[in-house]
Amino acid sequence: MEKQWWHTKTAYQIYPKSFCDTNGDGIGDLPGIIDKLDYLKDLGIDILWLSPIYCSPLADQGYDISDYYNIDPRFGTMEDMDRLIAEAKKRDMYILMDLVVNHCSDEHAWFRKACEDPEGEYGKYFYIEDCPDGKRPCNWRSYFGGSVWEPLPGHQDKCYLHMFHKKQPDLNWENPKLREEIYTMINWWLDKGLAGFRIDAIINIKKPLPWQDYPADRADGLCSAGEVLKHADGIGAFLSEMRDRCFLPHGAFTVGEVFNEKPEELPDFIGDHGYFSSMFDFNETIFGGSGNGWYDQTPITPNDYRSCCFASQKKVGDIGMLSNIIENHDEPRGVSRYIPEGECSIPAKKLLATMNIMLRGLPFIYQGQEIGMENVEFQSIREVNDISTLDEYQVARKAGLTPDAALKAVNRLSRDNARTPFQWDASANAGFTDGTPWLPVNRNYTRINLASQKNDPDSVYQYYRRLLALRKDPRYAETVVYGDLVPVFEDQDRVMAYYRTSAAQTLLVIGNYKTEPQTLTLSSKIRKVVLNNLPQLKTEGDTITLEGYQAVILDVSSDS
Ligand code: GLC
Ligand code: CA
């Protein structure tokens, strides 16, 4: 793997709507992000990914774009955006926008024109087909439920394709003109000084054509989008064109949201000359998934978490660098998911951070993760805003779950868990807004908030700072960033441990993923305790005893 500037960095995802509101309308905004740049810099962050802030009806919270060239007034103005880019630069920070080009909004001018004249130029920007007597071209199920086909407004004999919500019509990448529009737009943003993009839902841009049914996997007679993707070949031509026309000439950093890639394609995606710089590792997030829906997903155990992480590490080897996450805006809070119920504590949160951030790869912190924000206890489905959760609730109800059971099942995985406002302090609305937040603040904000952790050396927040600082500490950086990862103690129940080794150094990362103490015999001498999530470490001869949820990073380099 060739070295790149971004390998040594740490990234952070901002969900703008819920980060910091400066004008009291209950919606986070760009001036709010600018206000917090120093905070993020001090935490150890270099790269910021902003979830979409383009003009949007917000049917899917900005992942439905109605104008790629403007900022939604709810988030601010283009001047604010220019100022954000400039202020970030001053601090040696980099801004990534979210590139959502599998689909746009049904309120985008292209789609409006397509509805006016489906046979015209803009009709070809989308997938529009004849649907005589309502007969759909194929039986695919959209990610948010129901058929991917929807009648075209004004033309009941025609329908258009939407892999996501019906307000998110898919763009026709087979049309070279559409691709040109997209590349022009990408280059326009990169010319403005963006460092690059997080690339949304990109695996979906290639459809297996011609339209055909695949075996139905639920009583609705439809087949999942995952099944559809298995039959789609040839995405590489689109992705390499986009790379060559946009990303390479600008030296842009890109991270793909890639699911369902074929294993042998990894070098094409993130190898030295890959389509993208990096892509997210979702192995833990998809664990236990069921074709029946969220209600049927098997919860992940500590041993499963370990296997998922190690499997990804093994798969990627030295091909490239994955981007590692504990959570994002599409997932529940990691501490509520990867720490078994009833065991979530401050040491457990620090353990999870240690295990994830010391993996080989680029760490992406999601806003609020650094203060240990937790899932929300929704009291009623009416408190949920997210379209995906609302759909999964219906799926669970149809499968026979009672309203209570269905709520409980979707609660666990709801995307709104991570979308509640950032908890800045213990004042009203957690200091997020002077107005009424668009989504209620988590009720636990007086207990979990930044202000109470900022100056507490034992806080989750201060631990994150120390952990992230290791990536830049000249004593450890080479090993933390580039060292090989070698799992150890894999047959020990609920111990997650691995070596990170470089030519000059061996670090041992160990966590006791249990509430009871565990004793382990080490095969090398401890030179130094680099980081410890508890005040002490018990050692005796060549054994160490880790307390419940204790995590340590040890320098165990041999004398040479
Ligand atoms: C991605 C986004 C998600 C969105 C979907 C459709 O998965 O992360 O939030 O709903 O794409 O754009
Ligand atoms: Ca605002």
Short description:
The chain is 27% helix and 16% strand. By secondary structure, the protein is α/β, with parallel strands linked by helices.
Plain-language structure description:
This protein has 560 residues and is an alpha/beta fold. The protein folds into 3 domains: 9-102 and 176-384 and 415-466, Glycosidases (TIM Barrel, Alpha-Beta Barrel), CATH 3.20.20.80; 109-161, Oligo-1,6-glucosidase, domain 2, CATH 3.90.400.10; 484-556, Sandwich (Immunoglobulin-like), CATH 2.60.40.1180. The protein has 16 helices and 21 strands. It has helices at residues 30-35, 37-43, 78-90, 109-116, 176-191, 225-230, 235-250, 266-270, 302-316, 334-337, 346-357, 387-398, 403-413, 450-454, 460-469, 477-482, and strands at residues 11-14, 47-50, 54-55, 67-71, 94-99, 128-130, 149-152, 155-161, 196-199, 253-256, 278-279, 323-324, 362-366, 484-488, 495-501, 506-512, 518-521, 528-532, 538-540, 543-546, 551-555. It has an 8-stranded parallel β-sheet with strand order 11-10-9-5-2-1-13-12. The longest helix has 16 residues, at 176-191. It binds alpha-D-glucopyranose (GLC) and calcium ion.
